[in-house]
Amino acid sequence: MPSLVLASGSAYRRELLSRLGLPFETASPHLDESPLPGEAPLVTCERLAQEKARKIAPSHPHALIIGSDQIALLHGELVGKPGNHANAVRQLQRASGQEMTFHTALCLLNAETGRMQLNRVVVTVQYRSLHPEQIERYLAADQPYDCAGSGRIETLGITLVEWVKSDDPTALIGLPLISLTSMLLNEGVVLP
Q: Does 43 reside within a domain?
């Protein structure tokens, strides 16, 4: 089996990939993740997943390289990582009682052959009607300032939502494992 490299510095993606039980290494691609002028958010998401994998390829010429990127949309508007408490409060106030859609692009690049597989997985999250005190308690406990949409579904963020719809629920955390398993199978990596 070729070596497996996760083109990411994300602890969330690293934890998800470890669930597959395969040996892998991580390499952070250090990209400017800003959208290009006039670029639609879904295009940005897919482009960045591919660029992350391509950036790592020269230093891992015989590896299968995983690139992933995620965006969140609320009423068609991009919702980024809040970065701080005040922004997280605003994001959760806007999300209260609303549906937010998360798009996670996944790329698997065979650096040796140049074969690239790309998929985008959609997750729709219906938020509960959130009270200000509930938002403050949640943010104090989870501090999800590095998460798009200001929530960690894998921890207390689950209490903020009424339902989640997706063909691949791990996509919400940032790495769609069902899709990745299919891509790996296409490269001859059979799991488990």
A: yes
